[in-house]
Amino acid sequence: MLLLRPVPSGPERLPRAVRVVGLTLLVLLAAAAIWTRVLADRAERDFPRLGRHVEVEGLRQHVLERGSGTPIVFVHGAYGGLQDYEATILGAASERYRCVLWDRPGHGYSERPGGDVDPGAQARILMGVVRELGLERPLLVGFSYGGAVCLAAALDAPDEVRGVVLLNGPSHPWPAPLDLEYRLGRVPVLGWLLSETVVAPMGSVFGDRSVASAFDPSPVPELFARSPIPLALRPTSYRANTDDIALLKPFLRAQVDRYADLRVPVRALVSTDDTVVSPTIHVPELMKLVPNGVQLRIDGAGHQILYTHPDDVLQAIDDALAAAPR
Fold first, then answer.
1. Rounded to a whole number, what is the largest CA-CA distance in the chain?
2. Is 191 helix (H, G, I), strand (E, B) or coil?
3. pLDDT band of 304, cuts 50, 70, 90
4. Can you say whether the dihedral through the CA atoms of 56, 106, 209, 48 is positive or negative?
5. pLDDT-based confidence at 22, cuts 50/70/90?
6. Which candidate, 151, 4, 1, places its Cα nearest to that of 75?
7. Could you give the CA distance from residue 253 to residue 126 in angstroms, rounded to a whole number?
8. Cα–Cα distance between 66 and 84 in angstroms, integer?
9. In CA terms, which of 61, 159, 181, 298 is 20 to 30 Å from 187?
10. Model confidence over 193-216: pLDDT tens digits?
């Protein structure tokens, strides 16, 4: 009698080596996902909510308020949060002005709407925060990515803004292609998987290199330990950063033609050695277009001037307010 062996089906049909590799990969991804959750929980313990929430368009927006007088709203950059201002210039600024620090949508402890949330959408939410808090014509201060949001807000609501201070902020499209990291992050399923497993662990191990390049040629100060980068590496916040950066260049390309209509004063600090936001592409070109703009260059400085040159930032704020119409 001839006995026929059943034909293997499912995983049994795969070579043993393939099954071992696949199982190992699943175990590693599961471990990375657990590690990511541990890091996210630790980040929220180390960087707790500092202020309160206000509701704008049905979204909870995290703000920290200090001081009294002329209102100023501070907008942080990519991979940052309102703690970047709280750690550096809030103490001195709040002795003179009413300061409002805001976590941009999807960052820190602010909620983010669905869909593509470019600087224009964030500017709309920013002005919603301004109205919700009853701020009368605040000065907008934007560091790095936050500068693009402030420019958009000033263009869309010029009568509600006193002026804009840019701190190494982007204003124009740039020639370099989008980094692979952000292209992968926008791939459906793959981007979600990367953010939920490997991004935070890799950031905790290799992130010091990116931080050093943002400060170069200056050393990284101890104070930078108060920057909420660990919060930015949480899965949802990382995906928000990925989307922000992917949407920035096309948004700026469309916004350039509007700069000639910018009616409020603009003061722009530019670091001559900035390797993150080009000191030649953005603000110098912006100054050719805006009617009331002043460029202030900081020789030998890198990108992170909040931490390395806080006095220059405070002086730019004072100068912007002095130049603004009453």
1. 103
2. helix
3. very high
4. positive
5. low
6. 151
7. 21
8. 15
9. 61
10. 999 998 999 888 888 888 999 999
Q: Which two tokens stand for residue 18?
A: 């393939």
Quote the DSSP letter at residue 153: H
Please tell me the distance from the alpha carbon of residue 211 to that of residue 213, in angstroms, as a whole number.
Answer: 5
Going by C-alpha positions, the residue among 148, 129, 193, 169 that lies closest to residue 268 is 169
Whether the CB-CB separation of 248 and 118 falls below 8 Å is answered with yes
- Selection from 131, 108, 119, 168 nearest residue 298 by Cα: 168
Query: Which amino acid, 44?
Result: E
Structure tokens at 181: 């990291």
Q: Per DSSP, what are the bridge partners of residue 140? A: 73, 164
Six token digits for residue 152 = 């958009």
Using a pLDDT cut of 70, give the percent of the chain over it.
94
pLDDT tens column, 26-57: 777 788 889 999 999 999 999 999 999 999 99
**Rg of the chain taking only CA atoms, in angstroms:** 23
User: How far, in Å, CA of 210 to CA of 78, rounded?
Assistant: 12
**C-alpha separations of 235 from 76, 83, 215, 232 in Å:** 19, 19, 25, 8
| CA dihedral sign, ordered 67, 137, 78, 291 | negative
**E strand or H helix that includes residue 266:** strand 266-271
The 3-state DSSP class for residue 86 equals: helix
Tokens encoding 285: 């070109």
